Amino acid sequence: MVVPYRHVPSPLDLSDEEILEIGRLINLSIRALEEAMKPHGYNIGANIGRAAGAGIEEHYHVHVVPRWVGDTNYMPIIANTKVVVEALDRTYARLREVIERIVGASVEGGRRGGSP
């Protein structure tokens, strides 16, 4: 999930710099997932507004979901379907290691390099 620092309900409320940063982070997420998990494809999207299924209407964010041939289509949360059969903390550790290698620095929380 890629989340802007500012709490806004829509990408229309973001600056050009924030939109660019989100795009770069989506690409970084895809690169990290490619290396760590080798998915066959991705679903990338956002739910904007209650009618679209936004859980927190005031906080726009983008989902980057790795997909494999034969997995379940979109993850029916009500049915408690798990697309990735791995503990969340293990997935976090794998992705963090790859992201740190890609960016060449620690990614432990907070802003990096004066980002918006």
Describe the structure.
The protein has 116 residues and is an alpha+beta fold. It has a single domain, classed as HIT family, subunit A. Helices cover 33% and strands 9% of the residues. The protein has two helices and two strands. A two-stranded antiparallel sheet has the order 1-2. Helix 1 (16-37) crosses helix 2. The radius of gyration is 15 Å and the shape is globular. The two termini are 17 Å apart. Residues 110-116 have low confidence and may be disordered.
Task: Set down the secondary structure blueprint.
Layout: H1 16-37, E1 41-45, E2 63-67, H2 88-103
Name the features.
about 120 residues; alpha+beta; HIT family, subunit A; two-stranded antiparallel sheet; 2 strands
| C-alpha geometry | globular
Number of domains: 1
Oligomer: single chain
End-to-end Cα distance, whole Å, is 17 Å
Strand content: 5-15%
Residues in helices, as a percent range? 25-40%
With helices defined by DSSP (H or I, 4 residues minimum), what is the helix count? 2
CATH topology: HIT family, subunit A
The largest β sheet comes out as:
2 strands, antiparallel
CATH superfamily: HIT-like
Q: C-alpha Rg, in Å?
A: 15 Å
Please give the CATH class. Alpha Beta
Please trace the helix and strand order, writing H or E for each element: HEEH
Low-confidence parts: 110-116
The average pLDDT score comes to: 85
**What is the CATH architecture assignment?**
2-Layer Sandwich
Please count the beta strands (DSSP E, at least 2 residues each). 2
Structural class: alpha+beta
